[in-house]
Predict the 3D structure of the following.
Amino acid sequence: MSTSTLDLLVIFSHPPLTGLRGREGLDVALVSSTFDQNTALLFMGEGVLQLLPDQQPDCLQLKGTQAMLKALPLYDLDQVYVEEAALLRYGLSADKLLLPVQPLNNVELQQLLQRSRHLLSH
Amino acid sequence: MAGFVLNICGAPYTSQAPLSALRFARAALAAGHQIQRVFFYQDGVLLANALTCPPQDETHLTREWQQLAANHQLELLVCVAAALRRGILDQKEAARHGLAHHNLAEGFTLAGLGQLVDGMSSTDRLMTFSG
C-alpha cells in the first residue's frame, strides 16, 4: 500500500442499487481526481457489494454504477481499497470483483484513514 | 482562528443536517472562526427550494440560512447535478430544460462539485453534515 498523504478518501459503505449515495460519492471522487487531488476510494461493510461483477441494474430500471467504476483507472483513480473482513463475510475474493482492488486488514485500514486529509462517507 | 468548509448532505426536516450545520456555523462565527464555503450536496440541496413552507411555529431553515449568509457574506453553493435531479432549478436551468418554473431560493447559487473540491483543498477543516 502506498504511504503518501491522500487529499481525499471517499468511503462507500452502502449496498448498490439502494439510492444515489454510491453515484454521488463516485462523482466527488472523479472531480477530485480531475482537480489533481490525490484521491482514493474505500469500500467497506455492505459497500463491497458495489464491486460485484454482473449486476443487472436495468432489471430494476436503474442505471447502476458499474460503468463508472470500470472507468476509474481512466481518471487516474487507481487507489481502490476494500475491507478484507467484509470480503470474507460475503464470501468474495478480491480478484473476482469488477475492478482491481487492494484488500486491507484492520491495521492497514487505520493507517489509510490516518493518512487521509479529508474523508467523505457515502 | 480556523477556516471551515461545510458540506451539507442531509435534507431539511427529514434529517437533522441543515439545522445542525446552521447551529455549528453560528457557533463557529461567534467564536471568531471563518466559514470559507458552504456547499449543499445530495439531499442537502433541498434546502435551496424557495417553495418550502413549514408550519409557522417551526423553524424556517431556508430563511435562517439566507439570513446567516446575508449577515456574514457567506456563499451558499448548491451542487447543480444533485439539484437538477431533485427538482431545484434556477432560471437559466429551467430555460435550458424547457420548464416554465424555477425555484432556487434567493442567496443560493448553483455550482459544480469542483467548488467543493476546491474548498476542501484550501482547508484542513471540512465538516460534513449527513442525512
Notes: Residues 3-129 of chain B form a domain with the Hypothetical Protein Ychn; Chain: A, fold (CATH 3.40.1260.10). The helical segments of chain B are 17-30, 61-72, 80-85, 91-96, 113-121.
